[in-house]
Amino acid sequence: MLVTGGSRGIGRAITERFVASGHRVAATYRSGDVPDGALPVRCELTDPEQVEQAFATVEAELGPVEVLVANAGITRDTLLLRMSETDFTDVVETNLTASFRLAKRASRSMMRARFGRMVFISSVVGQLGSAGQVNYAASKAGLVGVARSITRELGGRGITANVVAPGFIETDMTAGLSETQVAEYRSRIPAARLGAVQEVAAVVEFLAGDAAGYVSGAIIPVDGGLGMGH
């Protein structure tokens, strides 16, 4: 299996969970390292040639990619009137276009095997919207269309495509927030707490397994009730 953005946060937790379960896991990264037991693959996902090379490396070391977890993403938060063209296009290129690129490449071996699992890590923001995140929300909402179109196109070949939509999760990004900001976020979440990366990883593990063979085109929220299924 291949997890993108496996060096930190949610991607690292997903990688660790699958390694612990005995899977052959490759994880892409741009900086830092990946968990022990995973094949590290340095890759800039916005570069098609590097993506192709990453798949070639994984296939040579571990075999065909049967499970793809498209997790890597960036933010460039700013209000609409201040958002530059580059702020918008860079986020969409990394979060959405790269996911299309990964899915297209992974589908080759999945179609031959008549088996595949694609899991796209979106965000509650993709459904609810968020001030200052027009670019991020658009990129994360787009993943829903990607997954559902793949489901209609490849569902008859044993391939599933689903979206996991985390809410406010405790990561390095949220660690930089003030106590006031965290309290404000917590007040909006019915579960009255931020989520843990392991809780997101557990849902991804389910979607990648045999038990989820009849689940496809779905959005699975991991948000403590914040989005109420939207």
From TrEMBL:
Signal peptide: none annotated. SMART domains: PKS_KR. Pfam families: adh_short_C2. InterPro entries: KR_dom, NAD(P)-bd_dom_sf, SDR, SDR_fam. Residues 2-172 form the Ketoreductase domain. One of its GO terms (molecular function) is oxidoreductase activity. Keywords: Oxidoreductase. SUPFAM superfamilies: NAD(P)-binding Rossmann-fold domains. Belongs to the short-chain dehydrogenases/reductases (SDR) family. This is 3-oxoacyl-[acyl-carrier-protein] reductase. It comes from Auraticoccus monumenti. The lineage of its organism: Bacteria, Bacillati, Actinomycetota, Actinomycetes, Propionibacteriales.
